[in-house]
Design goal:
alpha/beta, Rossmann fold, DNA polymerase, domain 1, 2 domains, 6-stranded parallel β-sheet, 39% helix, globular
Length: 224
């Protein structure tokens, strides 16, 4: 029997799921490294997507053997990123409709991101889904171990008052999918950042969030 037969909550990753932000944080991190005298490539960051900005930046620095104060570098990367948000950050098509369907079905909705609170708040405010809209929000400061560890998703379930088996996660990153499965949760992946074959550990893969249905999230909801 499928243990995910009574889904009560949907936990959304943020970057690459709700908002088209991966290209912005990538550009900000590349600019930060350039300011520090190192030229890096966009694909250098892929192994660290979804693991939080400290690892996102630190992993690339390690790859190049480049000495870097990650705390200072992350702060500067966020400064550059936040300059881009007002004019360039966009919500993905289909997000608002899916959230409406979740609410209509009586599902709890949450965000669980490895990003710091400053980035989470800025992104959600920009797309008109501020902190108060959600049943709960978990940021990078809340989880001791970042994705692919399950901490963020388990903490979100605890704050929502539901069992992990009653949750479904929507993710775009390999690290995030692994974290969801490690948490014992159903996982629907969207292939916005990684190709579908890299997300094979998820229960369902769609090419974009506009293609995710309520029945993908909670199979006991049958859409006609």
């Amino acid at each position: 029997m499928n243990k995910h037969t009574n889904i009560r909550a949907v936990i959304f990753d943020m970057d690459g799921v709700l908002v088209d932000s991966e290209k912005l944080i990538n550009a900000a991190a590349i600019a930060m490294f350039k300011e520090n005298g190192l030229v890096v490539q966009p694909d250098d960051f892929l192994p660290f997507v979804g693991a939080g900005e400290a690892r996102y930046i630190g992993g690339v620095a390690e790859h190049y053997g480049f000495p870097l104060d990650v705390h200072v570098a992350k702060k500067r990367t966020y400064e550059i990123y936040l300059e881009l948000v007002p004019s360039q950050l966009e919500v993905f098509d289909g997000v608002l409709d899916l959230l409406h369907e979740c609410r209509k079905a009586g599902l709890l909705i949450a965000v669980a991101s490895s990003a710091d609170e400053i980035k989470v708040r800025a992104n959600l405010r920009k797309i008109g889904l501020p902190v108060g809209f959600w049943d709960t929000i978990v940021t990078g400061e809340d989880a001791l171990d970042k994705k692919p560890a399950p901490d963020a998703f388990l903490f979100a379930a605890k704050k929502l008052g539901v069992m992990p088996s009653e949750c479904v996660v929507v993710e775009d990153a390999v690290n995030g999918v692994q974290a969801a499965k490690a948490a014992g949760m159903r996982c629907v992946a969207v292939a916005t950042t990684f190709p579908a074959d890299r997300l094979h550990e998820s229960d369902v893969v769609r090419d974009r969030i506009a293609r995710v249905s309520l029945s993908d999230l909670a199979p006991h909801f049958v859409t006609g």
